Amino acid sequence: MLDHIGFPVSDLARSRAFYVAALAPLGFGVQWEVTPEMSGGDSHVGFGPPGRPHFWIGTGRPLQGRLHVALVAVDRPAVDAFHAAALAAGGTDNGPPGIRAHYHPDYYGAFVLDPDGHNVEAVCHRPA
């Protein structure tokens, strides 16, 4: 349903470094950077698979409250690697890798809070 999502962060350099590390195990990297001159005011960094930014962060007024974003992982080891990389990059554990059977029997996810406290999840729906 969604083509892409974007949201402002309180410190673009800090969040960029966090997401570079946290998203690498999922196969997502920086695909495009937009300068204030290009956008008419704010800077943006787009992450995704090669050639396709789906996940954007940028400058601007930070959000109030907590955003939840779930990102697709190709397999369970990628979920585990995301969680470890996000914690090593300064994220806060918000749910270790594991089955969430209350969603469905093969729902394998991990949750971290990013530098602004947003709940970022990696999830794999495939059987082990």
TrEMBL record:
Residue stretches spanning the membrane: none
Record-annotated VOC domain positions: 1-125
UniProt signal peptide: none
InterPro entries registered for this protein in UniProt: Glyas_Bleomycin-R_OHBP_Dase, Glyas_Fos-R_dOase_dom, VOC_core
Top-level lineage group: Bacteria
Name of this protein: Catechol 2,3-dioxygenase-like lactoylglutathione lyase family enzyme
Source organism per UniProt: Labrys wisconsinensis
